[in-house]
Amino acid sequence: MRLARHLHLYPKGHPLYTPSIEERIEKLRAARLGDAEAATATSSARPAPTSPQWANSTPAKRRPGRGALRAWRTPLPFERVPARYFDRPAFENAFVTPDKANAVLRAGLNVRMRDDHPDYPAVTLANYLLGGPSTARVPVRVREKEGLSYSTYTTFSSSPFDESAEFRVASIFAPQNRDRVERAIREELERAVRAGFAAGEVEAGRKSLLEARRMARTQDRALVGRLGSYLFAKRTFAWDIEFESKIAALTAVR
């Protein structure tokens, strides 16, 4: 939460604003039943929260547009909330919990990039080599070689609409190992920036990433999520074909 509040400086009241813990508690305490009712109120008839139409329907009748939710209409027109890129300075902060046996590290960097940027395929592969699977550089160094972490990984995400990409690092470890974990992660990131990746490493990672993407499309949950996001972005799986062909063509640069 503190990392998000530092990296994303949306003003209070903005839909993407990250409230503090105190603000969240205050909102929960102030919430009333009428607020929930008003959030779903429409000018048309609104079904009761536990409508017999839904509860007593047979499985064959439980389809979108039927039963209790058929009459519900949102009272507000939809408008997508654009994300912004924020150029933020370095920041370090600790939230001490002496009664907890584990420590958690979260680090991040905002990147001005959309997922149609020419460098997006290369950055996606670089993140995969750094901290995507358990065999990537950062988890191998921190967990396998030094035995310092239960879970360490990196992520990179971007948007089809806005130049607001994010690179993130996460690690779980024993509190007494904090300095060693931070040093190991820094060294691996600096080594990648300084020396890049070897040709064999790129080739193996490229094949592994492409296979992981293919496997994801065989999983119902992942496939439905992809279809939903593509409908919203007005894309088809032709985008995957083009994107993966760009990944397949990547080579190591020294």
Give an overview of the whole structure.
The chain has about 250 residues and is mainly alpha-helical. Helices cover about 45% and strands about 10% of the residues. The protein has a 3-stranded antiparallel beta sheet with strand order 1-3-2. A hairpin with a 7-residue loop joins strand 2 and strand 3. Helix 6 (about 135-145) runs antiparallel to helix 7.
How is this structure best summarized?
43% of the residues lie in helices and 11% in strands. With 254 residues, it is mainly alpha-helical.
Name the helicity range: 40-55%
Characterize the overall form: globular
Mean pLDDT: 87
- Strand coverage percent: 5-15%
- Side by side, the strands of the main sheet go 1-3-2
DSSP summary: helix tally: 10
- N to C succession of SSEs: HHHHEHHEEHHHH
User: What's the total number of strands?
Assistant: 3
Structural class, judged by helices and strands?
Answer: mainly alpha
